[in-house]
Design a protein that fits this description.
mainly beta; six-stranded mixed β-sheet; four-stranded mixed β-sheet; 5 helices; about 5% helix
Amino acid sequence: GLSKDVVTDASGKYEMLGLPTNRKGIRLVFSGPSIATKIVAFDMGKDGLDGLEVIAEPTKPISGIVRDIETGEPVPGMIVYGNEEKMLRTVRAVTNERGEYRLTGFPKSKLYELTLRAPFSTGYLVRYSDVLDSPGLSSIAHDIKMRKGVPVNVTVVDKHTRKRLHPELHYAPTADNPLFRESMRHLMWPTEGYQQFYAPDENGVVRFIAYPGRGLLRTILQGAPYLPVAETEEIKKNQATDLNFGFASAGHAYAVIEARADDDILEIELEADAGQSASANLIGEDGSSMVGVEAYNLNFNAYLDSHSADGKSWPETLKDSRFTARLLEPGKQRLLVFLHEQDKLIGTTIVAAGERTRDVTLRKWGSVTGIVKDSDGKPLANIDVYLHYPSVPGTTGNWPEKSEVKMPAKSETAMMSGSRERPPTVRTDESGRFSIERLMPGGSHRLVIKASLGFAPKEVADIQPDVGESIDVGEIRLSETAPK
């Protein structure tokens, strides 16, 4: 737990006991009525720390009265934060019964950021207010006006069972709402309010205070198998001018609301669609039940896959021979792929909502080998070789992208940009040779060989192994490219 607060003596010295040893990133907060609050982070060794000296700066106080924007009446009980995120809410004050506050802990600065938050029961909205500096260290007088919003209760139910679910909810006024800019400090997407979320109570009801006027709700059901909203006509129409709509498409339910200032409570019920499911069994060629199989695309969704920075189809290891494909949508077929690594087996099937799903027989997978050389017949090492599985028109889902090549970790920039560069399946060894397994018997595969600068890529098509067959494509010679 937290250590007890201590107070410096007349000489400014202090002693704090009970801090953990061998711990990194311990933070101490130094504050007082006449100094700027300072957060100091340090690492603690096994023998403790002696002599942590802190230089305190004088504070620049800000004081004023918080009033209701409509009535002009003072508003007590409002929490006033200074530089809320940067100072981790350590600079704060609470308005008294006359609405007065005095905020200390700011170091002198050109600009001071205030954030006012209200207890839910008061009905007031969050308020952002910036204060410009004044000469010297005397207190700045700064009054603030608070706006009341509209209480909203949101529930999300399963579309088919009507069971109440427990979502997280994101909300923001829409860009055409006159109070849109009032709802944030900085214009960004998703907006500040939309990045935050409201949690449900024990009954699954999410309660929050909305801005009067038009607003956008998005709910997310963490870890629950429900279909995303995807791009509705309403989302397509609005997302060009309000990017929050684009983020709503990845949620499990959304709504555009119109909150009136005279509403007592706005009650909203949303539906989440789990789609349909299909189940069958996995069997070996001898008819025995297969366990420990890696299943791909059981919960695949084309919209989420196309909007993922990862783009990889993660497998699910089955505990028994029964599999269930979920989130099936009417009119959309899905490819399922199954691998049993220990016995080198592979199987596929296509499932669709409302259609019978047959048992899947796993068979010995095929393989392909070859050697990559330059135009003079010299073997080329460390050449990237990519395996492309057969095309299955009219289906969603991905073939497994197994790679034996260790790739460097993605940079934060690449993740944020949605980079989906696929790693090679294998690389050639020192003798230019490669071997790839997990080919689908009877399917037409392609190899794409990509070398570094100086060689043109090459493709080898129509590789169709039989059950358990290994195909040797022989020499693959790469042509040198003319230097640019």
